[in-house]
Design a protein that fits this description.
The chain is an all-alpha fold. The protein has helices at 3-35, 39-68, 72-82, 93-124.
């Protein structure tokens, strides 16, 4: 597999990671403003969070497009690496970075979901999306 293709995928993953870090930050702020009953700020923050989520969708589409030109076996390998899985032995330094970035993305996603779950169950109780 060409390192140049992996490098492009890694660049898109980095952009995705930055957006996801912003989503995590905004989600924490939503929780803070909810505890202060500041509905105006919460609505503003939810709009900002949606904007970041939309950007993540664009990066996911870009990555999917890049992966689509790979052979089926390479596509499966890269997809696993992007999930932070090292089922396939990395064959370059860039592939190791893809695995690392994939792990970072999975960690930030997990943290953000936990924050969101706490907020949702606090607000909606048994009617929460997570119940």
């Amino acid at each position: 597999m060409e390192d140049s293709m992996l490098l492009e995928i890694l660049k898109e993953m980095q952009k995705k990671y930055q957006c996801m870090a912003e989503i995590e930050r905004i989600t924490r702020e939503v929780g803070d403003f909810l505890s202060r009953n500041d509905q105006t700020s919460v609505q503003l923050l939810l709009g900002m969070r949606q904007d970041e989520m939309d950007k993540v969708d664009v990066f996911n589409r870009n990555i999917k497009c890049l992966i689509s030109v790979l052979s089926p076996e390479e596509a499966v390998k890269v997809d696993d690496w992007m999930k932070g899985q090292d089922n396939w032995i990395p064959d370059s330094q860039i592939s190791e970075k893809v695995i690392e970035k994939g792990k970072n993305i999975q960690q930030i996603l997990k943290r953000t979901i936990e924050i969101d779950r706490f907020i949702s169950t606090r607000i909606a109780g048994t009617h929460s999306f997570y119940k």
